[in-house]
Design goal:
single chain; alpha+beta; seven-stranded antiparallel β-sheet; binds fe (iii) ion
């Protein structure tokens, strides 16, 4: 099986949001979204079983969906895609608006409020058929496709990360952790001298 073949099926990137039982907003970046029919309006989404957003949506049955624009920053995709809402407040750093108690990303190409209708279970995923309760197109009409993300945003970020060094201006320590430096919490300190993240300078 050449799995690259799967990437030839073009699709977009989306951020979904839900509210968990503790009234905390959770969310995820997904690519498996498909319009099934327009009248009645139904779309299908697929979520990995390990995802906390999936776990939440199974229980609460309500979901927001924001269609990402092509200029979406890498950090937004990384935060929603590579971190877990179990441990991270993914919405904290985003410009958002709230509707029906759910979070939506501002400046997205479109917004949809979804209600769970039917759930199918596969080996690793739940597939949800959802009723579209409401939807609205945003001002941005250039959606981010998955391929454009791979080719433009992810590749560019990789090149930038390889070239950019973050250096402690106090002791000269060069950051080499796995987490992108920008994603480190504000109270992170230099492992050598203990100074705050804010004393680090970027060297290209
Ligand atoms: Fe230092």
């Amino acid at each position: 099986m050449d799995l690259n073949a799967l990437f030839k099926i073009s699709h977009g990137l989306y951020v979904i949001g839900a509210k968990d039982e503790n009234n905390r907003w959770v969310g995820s970046c997904i690519d498996a979204v498909m319009v099934i029919e327009v009248n009645p309006c139904q779309i299908m989404i697929s979520l990995g079983k390990n995802s906390y957003t999936c776990e939440t949506f199974l229980k609460t049955k309500a979901l927001s969906l924001s269609v990402l624009p092509e200029h979406t920053p890498f950090n937004t995709i990384a935060r929603f895609g590579f971190q877990s809402s179990r441990t991270t407040d993914k919405w904290k750093k985003e410009t958002l608006f709230e509707k029906e108690g759910l979070p939506f990303l501002k400046n997205a190409c479109a917004y949809m409020h979804l209600k769970q209708n039917t759930v199918l279970e596969t080996a690793t995923h739940y597939v949800f058929l959802c009723d579209v309760i409401s939807c609205v197109a945003g001002e941005c009409d250039a959606e981010l496709t998955y391929n454009a993300y791979q080719k433009n945003i992810k590749k560019k970020e990789k090149t930038m990360t390889q070239q950019t060094k973050w250096i402690c201006s106090v002791c000269g320590y060069v950051y080499d952790g796995e987490t992108p430096f920008e994603e480190l919490p504000d109270d992170w300190v230099c492992p050598l001298c203990g100074e705050l993240k804010s004393v680090f300078v970027r060297e290209e």
